[in-house]
Amino acid sequence: LNDGVQHGRVFQLTGSAGSTAEHFMWKDGLNLAWAAREEGNDILEIEFDYYTGATTTSQNSIRLLILNGDLSRILGGYMIAQDTKIISGLAYYEDDPGNGTYQYSLGANGEDVVLPNSTWIRLGMSFKRSDGKVIWKGPGFDSFTNGTTAGENPAEIDFLATATYEEGIENTVASTARFDNY
User: Fold this and answer.
1) Contacts of 105 (CB under 8 A, 6+ apart)
2) Confidence (pTM)
3) Contact, 124 vs 45, CB < 8 A?
4) For residue 64, which of 89, 85, 33, 30 has the smallest C-alpha distance?
């Protein structure tokens, strides 16, 4: 997709107009690159530009996920609600068996961060293998969590558009997300 002079060619991911479909994009090979890294390099950093688009009634959320070797745990990630433009952090945190991925408010004092409409923004995230720490950075936030995934190896980074289910709310509107400079 050509998105004008500033960003030229960008990647666009379109979410479903239904309640169950998910659309993914990933590139194979992270697990091999991670295994070949120099000893002591235990931090995976990701930065990208994201176009927020207009607020919509779509119940889709756009996510970027760092997944472990068997794809069972989200080591770190972002979730952006298309209808509210609230951005949240995602990370696996096991405080008792059966729990798993938690959603973190990224603002000061646990407040929601709302992204501006129709704006390119720079987002960043890192995962530290030695202690499971996840750091999220973007406009209006610089937040972290000490996750419970110390020792886990990142194996895949996924871009995902998925319909978020809420009791009594049916998703009938698709939405798009644009990424650049990944």
Assistant:
1) 88, 111, 112, 113
2) 0.87
3) yes
4) 89
Amino acid making up residue 153: N
Q: Which residue has the higher pLDDT, 23 or 17?
A: 23
SS (H, E, C) the chain: CECCCCCCECEEEECCCCCCCEEEEECCCHHHHHHCCCCCCCEEEEEEEEECCCCCCCCEEEEEEEEECCCCCEEEEEEEECCCCEEEEEEECCCCCCCCEEEEECCHHHCCEECCCCCEEEEEEEEECCCCEEEEEECCEEEEEECCCCCCCEEEEEEEEEECCECCECCCCCCEEEEECC
Q: What is the pLDDT of residue 117?
A: 92
Structure tokens at 108: 């000061």
Q: Which pair of tokens denotes residue 86? A: 């609230």
Q: What is the pLDDT of residues 72-91, one digit of tens each?
A: 899 999 999 888 999 999 99
Nearest one of 75, 55, 58 to 66, comparing CA atoms: 75
112's tokens: 């929601």
